Amino acid sequence: MAIAFNTQTVVSAEGLGRSFASTTVIADVSLKLNRQSTTALVGPSGSGKSTLLSLLGLLLDKSAGHLELFGSSVESLDAGTRACCRRLGIGFVFQHTQLIGALRAIDNVLVQTHFLHAEDRKVLMTRIEGGVTTLPKRALVLLEAFGLKDRVHHFPHQLSVGQKRRVALARALLLKPPLLIADEPTNDLDAISAQLVCEALFSAAADGHALIFATHDNNLARRADVTVSLGRAI
Amino acid sequence: MTFVRKLILHNLRMRWVQSTSIVFMVLLGVAVLFAFMLVGRGANDGLALSEQRAGAQLLLLPAKAGNYLSDTALLFSGAPVHHYMSSELFEEVRELEGVERATFQFFSQTLDASCCSASGETRLVGIDASSDWLVAPLLDDPAALSDGLADGQVIIGAAVDGFEKGTGRLLNNDVVVAAVMAATGTGLDSSIVVSADWARQLAAAIAGYQPFWELNGQPETLISAILLDVQPGREERLEAKLEALGDLRIVERSAVVAQTQQRLRAVFALLAGVAAVMALASLLQLCARYWSLSWERRGEFALYRALGATRGDLRRLICGEAFVLTGAGALLGLLVGGGLFALLLAQLSAAEAFPFLMPSIAVIALIALAVVAAFALLALLAIIIPLQRVARIEPALALQQTDIG
Ligand SMILES: Nc1ncnc2c1ncn2[C@@H]1O[C@H](COP(=O)(O)OP(=O)(O)OP(=O)(O)O)[C@@H](O)[C@H]1O
Ligand SMILES: [Mg+2]
Fold first, then answer.
1. Is A51 near ligand 1, meaning CB less than 6 Å away?
2. Chain segment A162-173, per-residue pLDDT in tens
3. How far is the CA of B400 from the centre of ligand 1 (A)?
4. I want to staple B396 with a disulfide (CB 3.0 to 4.6 A). Which of A60, A198, B39, B80 is the partner?
5. pTM reported for the whole predicted model
6. What's the pLDDT at B376?
């Protein structure tokens, strides 16, 4: 099943819920993410921010409610299409950067390109000028834009937390996914690094991505168009 | 593939003990299996051939000749016998009742590159063309023997080299190759055959052989071996008569072949057992390795899933890694196996003479292919369960990890 990634509304959730065994972590969350919109997710630790982002990122299955991605109900998607959505539709910046220690920064940014399928290339042809062949160059451009010009060939263990976060962000942005999910992107960062990452996120949204991010930083949350609050601190 | 290669290099670096142990395990298994199969095949073909070819039923030698040589060595490896007996004995034996046909041979020195064109160690055998029935059937040109062999004419064994142009040097003489013998899997393959008369003349001129002539008489009157076929049903009576001639060592070909077959079978059963144990150990090692690998790297695999890899992509990745490791092991294994084969052959033939026919390139390639295919299958068996486990990894697992690998 082919997904049209160019819908204006990227995510639409209605009464979304998720339980682990008998514990309900999130319940009855409704939200709508449009292109160029920015949404902040706030709430105390354990309130389910990461869980909600995982639901939206198709990393985790919901246990209640209705979720639409790119105009299609997620239930209607087979495993292959869901994987395709993760590849081409969603850029995920994990709370813990999740870089691959075996790979240099540039190869971490490019890691997804090794899993591209033939039909993905056609989609990317319309999305990225020059198509997949320009991706290595684009990866370099992204790293340079994030101030990592001289860290391109470093391994993750040779990078600071803030630098790793920016590499992870470059990885998420490489294929220009319509939906950008960032889990506490400024956590552990000093003011300058945090600023760098924020600017990158918001300028991506201005470029047409729908951005949702979880944060404990109220100043950052205030910059978003919409704030979704998860309660019930645990 | 570049990606897979990178991960494998990383794997080798970070978990080099386990990764090299996979390569080593495959290497060992492939090497042992390859070498054993080559030896087995060559010996099997050699035995089959020696049953068909180059056989007189009985081989008679001077009794003292055999003391330090086994029947198998005399029959198969063409061990040099520097003991001689009177040619009158041949006439006596030929006349005995029950003898179907008989011929004699005269063995001269063992030749090497210092005295003749042949590069390897080569035996010089003089035959009696008028009575010989053993060499003619082996010749590419059977008519070559019909007029006997002139002085300076040689017939060379299948494994004798240095005579590619049809001419060569032999103990300071120019010689012409009259014919080439087919492979027999025995010492005949590395022999140069000349007429018995010329062999005697050549031998007479060898300085170091004077003690033999002083002991036994002039070479013109001597022979080294009598070969004969027996009329059916006369075996026992003839044997009694031959024994009565005294001072003869009688080697019965069929008995020796049967005995050798039996011994070889025992050796090869042992080798096959060792090979089977090696293969099983390889399989277990591979299973254990891939099993733990699928657990150790589950965070990495979950991340690939989170980034959009399908289950199929992960399967391909793991298969690719297994393929590279197994391939490297198999390739090195074939190389090591070739060396092991040479070593094994040398060791086995030093311990026990047996007919051996070097397998052809095509057969070697086929055996190599079969061994590699067998290990590819083992590797496939070993990754089946890990593949399933990895395919079941949920992308959400990526959330619980920090940096990966
Ligand atoms: N796989 C799981 N099994 C059981 N419980 C889980 C699982 N994943 C998360 N939880 C629970 O869900 C709750 C919400 O976790 P989550 O990580 O979403 O919180 P969070 O809001 O992101 O917290 P933080 O701000 O600390 O990152 C926690 O109580 C956690 O224990
Ligand atoms: Mg969290």
1. yes
2. 899 999 999 999
3. 10
4. A60
5. 0.70
6. 87
